[in-house]
């Protein structure tokens, strides 16, 4: 008698286009809802900017006659030209450069020096010193302005630094307060970032005979480029957009930064919102240029200091 072997049963195959049960079948709706929510938030965030662009392109006569919610009868760049000429914007742009660039560079340099000291050296008051620098950002500027104003009226400067011979009503005074006020935050961030750098690097440099200043300038600072790029972007935007310190500590209008130039577009009895919208958009251009120039380093530096506590 001849027997034939029975083949083993074959498990049924699932069609390739049928998603497995459970996770993959339920993920697309969740991701779609998340994307819709993020798109709605982004649109809500951009709505004031888009409205400012729409308003700046319309003549004031058109909006005064038909309303701001009406369809534009004409679009032009005349508001940008008028805002540039009437506010003296080139002069105030240069004032902002004279304030922002030294303030950012000074803040990063002093903060990096303090962060290097508290992160690479162990001593008794290490944490207390870091907390002291960080605590400087906890007080609002409005609380500090009264004693600071009286102090600026007492501190003298040579004639080549200030026309008033005082720290008050001088560009140097604004640079000094920006550096002092921003050092706390930058010191905290840079110290956390420097703690992620292996200590063996500076130890090897010390064995090779490198002094502390060389370790700082030639080893630590080049390794902190992502942190410097992220902080430079944030500090440039914050200092450039600041309005409070120049308003309180500078008396002469010609010495104030670009944020004060918008006040020149307001008349005593009449204000053109379309003109102010055009001027506000032009003042935001330098901050956008800084962000796009440092975009890659800024994104890579968003997680600075997250590797170690």
Key terms for this structure?
309 residues, mainly alpha, 64% helix
Question: How would you describe this structure to a colleague?
Answer:
The chain is mainly alpha-helical and 309 residues long. It has helices spanning 23-56, 60-66, 78-86, 89-120, 126-135, 141-152, 171-195, 199-207, 212-223, 225-240, 244-249, 273-283, 285-293, 295-300. The longest helix is centred in the first third of the chain and has 34 residues, at 23-56. It is globular, with a radius of gyration of 29 Å.
Give the topology, please.
Layout: H1 23-56, H2 60-66, H3 78-86, H4 89-120, H5 126-135, H6 141-152, H7 171-195, H8 199-207, H9 212-223, H10 225-240, H11 244-249, H12 273-283, H13 285-293, H14 295-300
Summarize the structure.
It is globular and about 75 Å long. It is 64% helix and 0% strand. With 309 residues, the protein is an all-alpha fold.
How far apart, in Å, are the first and last alpha carbons? 80 Å
Helix content: 55-70%
What class would the helix/strand composition place it in? mainly alpha
Q: pLDDT under 50 segments (min length 5)? A: none
**How many beta-strand runs?**
0
- Figure out the total of helices: 14
**Percentage of residues in strands:** under 5%
Task: Give the overall form.
Answer: globular
Mean pLDDT: 83
Estimated radius of gyration: 29 Å
Provide the succession of SSEs. HHHHHHHHHHHHHH
For the sheet with most strands, the description reads: none
């Amino acid at each position: 008698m001849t027997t034939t072997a029975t083949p083993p049963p074959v498990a049924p195959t699932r069609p390739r286009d049928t998603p497995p049960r459970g996770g993959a079948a339920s993920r697309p709706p969740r991701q779609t809802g998340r994307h819709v929510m993020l798109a709605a938030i982004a649109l809500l965030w951009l709505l004031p900017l888009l409205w400012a662009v729409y308003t700046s392109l319309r003549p004031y006569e058109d909006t005064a006659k038909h309303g701001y919610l009406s369809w534009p009868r004409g679009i032009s760049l005349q508001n940008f030209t008028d805002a540039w000429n009437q506010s003296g914007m080139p002069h105030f742009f240069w004032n902002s450069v004279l304030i922002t660039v030294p303030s950012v560079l000074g803040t990063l340099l002093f903060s990096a020096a303090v962060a290097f000291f508290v992160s690479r050296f162990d001593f008794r008051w290490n944490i207390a010193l870091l907390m002291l620098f960080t605590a400087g950002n906890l007080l609002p500027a409005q609380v500090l302005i009264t004693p600071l104003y009286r102090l600026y009226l007492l501190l003298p400067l040579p004639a080549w630094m200030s026309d008033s011979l005082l720290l008050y009503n001088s560009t140097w005074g604004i640079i000094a307060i920006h550096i002092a006020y921003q050092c706390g935050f930058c010191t905290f961030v840079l110290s956390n970032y420097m703690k992620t750098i292996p200590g063996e690097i500076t130890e090897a440099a010390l064995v090779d005979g490198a002094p502390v200043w060389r370790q700082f300038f030639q080893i630590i600072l080049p390794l902190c480029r992502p942190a410097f790029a992220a902080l430079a972007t944030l500090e440039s935007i914050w200092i450039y957009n600041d309005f409070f310190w120049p308003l309180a500590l500078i008396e002469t209008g010609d010495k104030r930064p670009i944020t004060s130039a918008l006040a020149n577009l307001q008349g005593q009895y009449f204000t053109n919102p379309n003109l102010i919208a055009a001027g506000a958009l032009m003042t935001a251009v330098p901050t956008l240029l800084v962000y796009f120039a440092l975009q890659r380093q800024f994104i890579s530096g968003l997680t600075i200091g997250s590797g170690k506590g």
